[in-house]
Amino acid sequence: MPRPLRLEYENAWYHVMNRGASRKNIFKTDQHRHFFLDALSEASTLFGAEIHAYCLMGNHYHLLIKTPRGNLSRIMRHVNGVYTQRYNRDTGCDGALFRGRYKAILVEGDEYLLQVSRYIHLNPSTARMSRAFQDYPWSSYRHYLKTAHKPGWLYTQPLLAALNSQESAHAYKKFVMAGLDEDTKNFYAKKNCPVIFGSRERVKALLTALSEKKIRSAGTDYNNIKILPTFDQVNQACATYSGVPLQKVVRISRRRGQENLPRMLGIYGCRMWASGRLKDIATLFGCRSFAAVSNAVKRVAERMDTDNAFRRTVGEVRKKVSDN
User: Fold this and answer.
1) d(Cα 1, Cα 120) in Å, to the nearest integer?
2) How many whole angstroms separate alpha carbon 245 and alpha carbon 251?
3) CATH, range 231-323
């Protein structure tokens, strides 16, 4: 399996997450959670890490980190490594604790930073671990509401200031209680979550700037980082290429034996190009089950293997999606 992409530069923001090997718990006691928070404090002191939000769940964690020195890999090597050592020492275990390298999503734009912080702070509610998630003791949410003493290594003011409110804590609570916006839901629902969260314009500009400046990227080829299309972009490209109304792409054809090529390509593209979830694709296209989506994708893939003309058609539609 390829290593996750790493984009590192000064003052970059990341949503970092990792989970236990085989989805096993990585925090068995409150003492273990204190071990982890201590490792974050040390990373702040040693490597200049700015921790802006966190949430420690049973078998995984979420962090929102800014890296003034452009050294995320070094920060996370300390956090994960030191925590694993202390956890193993306390439990008498040996070996790897996490499933592998952490996942880091680069976050572009103030509005997206707020959305990621909300996603992180809503995790206990989403997992049904705490009905009153604002009282969950192992996230930074209480510190944003100013109902608990804030540790010195936790930064809350930058995101609170982004709300442009004199009553920042109240404004932030209102923002979080509104729930996830559609952009954030769709982003994290993707089968393979992209490595950058931000507007298409900001992402393109960032990649261009990084490529031109040749910023350190742990071997990343910026030209190979894809900005995933939306369902709408995929279906519009299928409709335009086929010269049919957009509705025909998502509509179920009732005539037996009649192939609805735009619909086939739409389902295939939403899964393979937009990395959509089976559930979401089935809902959009009115499929009876997730299996119907999988079977449709499989049929297109098999036909591409044996039909050169069809494979060229799929390639042309894919190019049209990329050009949008």
Assistant:
1) 27
2) 10
3) 1.10.1750.10
- How many other C-beta atoms can be found within 10 angstroms of the C-beta atom of residue 45? 10
**Threshold 0.90, pTM exceeds:** no
Question: In this structure, what token pair is assigned to residue 82?
Answer: 């030191």
For residues 96 and 79, what is the distance between their CA atoms, to the nearest angstrom? 14
Q: Token match 């995101």: residue?
A: 159
pLDDT tens for the chain, 324 residues long, are 344 456 788 899 999 999 999 889 999 999 999 999 999 999 999 999 999 999 999 999 999 999 999 999 999 999 999 999 999 999 999 889 998 889 999 998 888 999 999 999 999 987 665 556 778 999 999 999 999 999 999 999 999 999 988 899 999 999 999 999 988 988 888 767 778 888 878 777 777 777 665 554 444 444 445 567 888 999 999 999 989 898 888 877 655 656 788 898 999 999 888 878 788 898 999 888 888 888 888 889 888 888 889 999 999 999 888 776
* Annotated domain spans of the chain: 12-224, 231-323
A 10 A CB-CB count for 47 gives 18
- Name the E strands within 191-317: 196-197
Residue 66 DSSP one-character state = E
Alpha-carbon distance of 14 to 195, in angstroms, equals 10
CB atoms within 10 A of CB 207: 16
How far is the C-alpha of 26 from the C-alpha of 10, rounded, in Å?
30
- Rounded to an integer, what distance in angstroms lies between the CA atom of residue 158 and that of residue 114? 10
CA dihedral sign of residues 272, 275, 277, 282:
negative
Tokens of 226: 């894809």
CATH of 12-224, one of 3.30.70.1290, 3.40.1280.10, 3.20.20.140, 3.30.565.10: 3.30.70.1290
